Amino acid sequence: MDEKGAVANALGTTPLTFEPREVEPSLHAMGMTTEDSLREYIRLFVRNPLVSTMGPLAKILDFVANAAPGVKEILAIGKVCWEVREQHYDLVVVDAEATGHVVAQIEAPTILSGLVQVGVIKEQSAWMRDILHDVNRTGVVVVATPEEMPVVETIELLDRLRASSKVDVAAVIANRVPASPFREADLAVVTALRDAAATGGPAAALAAPLELVSVAVDRRARAEQHLVALAGAAQRGGVDFLVLPEADGDPVVRLTEDLSMELS
Questions:
Q1: What is the distance between the alpha carbons of residues 96 and 157, in angstroms, rounded to a whole number?
Q2: Residue-level pLDDT at 150
Q3: How far is the C-alpha of 125 from the C-alpha of 245, rounded, in Å?
């Protein structure tokens, strides 16, 4: 949904709009807002192409979208499901909402189906729900860096998804995992040098660089602890767990490059 413009910046292109744009061969990107999704819904299903000029109607519907449970969320997820149903693309990848909102978003069709028992909204919620709950078509990929708060939030999200959603969790990914600066056998040597530098003498000159080395070693050690917690959460849910090492460059750029290669 690219509210911060990360995808556009990574692709070196102008800000994305609601209209899909081919940014690489066979790779399209778009930015999405609730208001744009609302206008397209009215154009497609209410058959009113002039909604963008109808201020009072748009304001009323925007009020409903913000007030009624599940309506605002379904406008966003509904656009995604529409693109899948119409088979406009071979693969649809969505940068979803933050962990606190994603469950409500992907379960919006189920929520509305429980609130509205008949009519068009009921029918449309049903086909969206079918797409989202089909493990062969939809999967949530949860990504976290190996740090305390992201890992805690990820584990909580996995628990909520298992308890409150029928959408399949396809994988858990640990991203930007720092590499160990030394082999295990070299750590003892580094530790001995650091202890010697702390006592003064000729080794004192190594104190500053060895302190930087210690920071890197400690960062890797903390990351390993968080990786254990993430791997455990993935294993409890029977989900694949992947580790992506820290690397130079923007991860969004690497993702788009990989997608371009796969789709070309």
A1: 13
A2: 92
A3: 39
How does DSSP classify residue 202?
G
Q: Fill in the DSSP letter of residue 187.
A: H
Q: What is the DSSP string of 62-130?
A: HHHHHHSTTHHHHHHHHHHHHHHHTT-SS--------HHHHHHHHTHHHHHHHH--SSHHHHHHHHHHH
What are the residues whose beta carbons fall under 8 Å from the beta carbon of 132, sequence distance 6 or more?
A: 77, 81, 106, 109, 138, 166, 167
Q: Which of 85, 84, 76, 83 is nearest to 107 (CA)?
A: 76
Integer-rounded Cα Rg, in Å, for the chain is 24
Determine how many CB atoms are found less than 10 A away from the CB of residue 39.
Answer: 20
Q: Where are the domains of the chain?
A: 32-138, 140-264
Note the pLDDT tens digit of each residue in 19-32.
Answer: 889 988 888 888 88
